[in-house]
Amino acid sequence: MTQRALALIDGEHYAPVVRAALEELPYDFVAAHLLGGTEKLREDADYGVPLAPELDRALDDHGAEIVVDLSDEPVLGPPERMRLASRVLARGLPYVGADFRFDPPELAPFPLPSLGIVGTGKRVGKTAITAHAARLLGRDRRLVVVSMGRGGPPEPELMEVAPDVEALLELSRSGRHAASDYLETAALAGVPTIGCRRCGGGLAGAVFASNVHEGARMAVELEPELVLFDGSGAALPPIETRRRILVVNAQQDPVVVTGYLNAYRHFTSDLVVLTMAEAGTGWEDLRDAATELAPVVLATVLRPRPAADVSGRRVAFFSTAPESAHGLFEQHL
């Protein structure tokens, strides 16, 4: 069946050229959205389909199943095109052009109350935010965490008891990844945690392969009141959660972290948390950019603290934080 399509067009192309393309391409074009370049248009320009003044309204009113981009420079450059692609993907629709196609990540429905915590990359503090959220939310409700990582187990693995140092050392000595996110969350949050793995990550966060679906079914069998799905790097758990938190390192380049298909991550999140928002680092520029995309943006800093009493003991502290943070940690500890 031919897909109902919304065309994105510009006035740099003459209307007869665009109309001929709409008739030739293998889509059922139901409307067109004019992006710009109107100074070259004749008043009687006829595209053979209705013109929609607003993108979101066009998608609502015409029931498009795909968005086809027939525009070009100078009306739509690469940054603007990626922002449009993000908006379309956030509506759950594919976005295609002459030599590209973007599809929204496929997210499976999930029957229980759920929260997703995802990031814009590695070293953004996502796992720390996940553990903190799990501790808070697990105080007064039955909570299960499903954690996805690049070093997760081949089959979903339930950790019902927080692992101690000896248990982690035993895993490491057996050749296992003893620092996987699910182990960290189980150890620090003290809630049941299911470890899963994934491979690959697309521009919008889709994964090539994972066992998260099996992990999600395992979580349902535990009959929790809430399930927290923890992403991996910039990859999304392939589950449709009811709410989503996006974790961003405030030291990242605002052009990158709110541009490209990272805009999609912002559009589909209910809350953006900016970590490492240290005084004097200029993180406010990123906050301003993120506020244009997401409904709520909060800034915070991260500081380590012992998970148990270490008074009077000699302690070594290891961290993956950049060297610039070492002085702050030393002063705090």
CATH 2nd-level architecture of the largest domain: 3-Layer(aba) Sandwich
Overall form: elongated
CATH uppermost class of the largest domain = Alpha Beta
How many helical stretches? 11
Instruction: Give the overall average pLDDT.
Output: 93
**CA(first)-CA(last) distance:** 63 Å
Q: Into which percent range does the helicity of residues fall?
A: 25-40%
Q: Any low-confidence stretches, pLDDT <50, length ≥5?
A: none
What is the SS-derived class? alpha/beta
Give the name of the CATH superfamily of the largest domain: P-loop containing nucleotide triphosphate hydrolases
What can be said about the biggest beta sheet?
Answer: 9 strands, mixed
Q: How many discrete structural domains?
A: 2
Return the string of H and E elements.
EHEEHEHEEEHEEHHEEHEEHHEHEH
Taken as a percent bin, the fraction of beta residues is: 15-25%
CATH topology of the largest domain: Rossmann fold
- Backbone CA Rg: 23 Å
> How many β-strand runs?
15
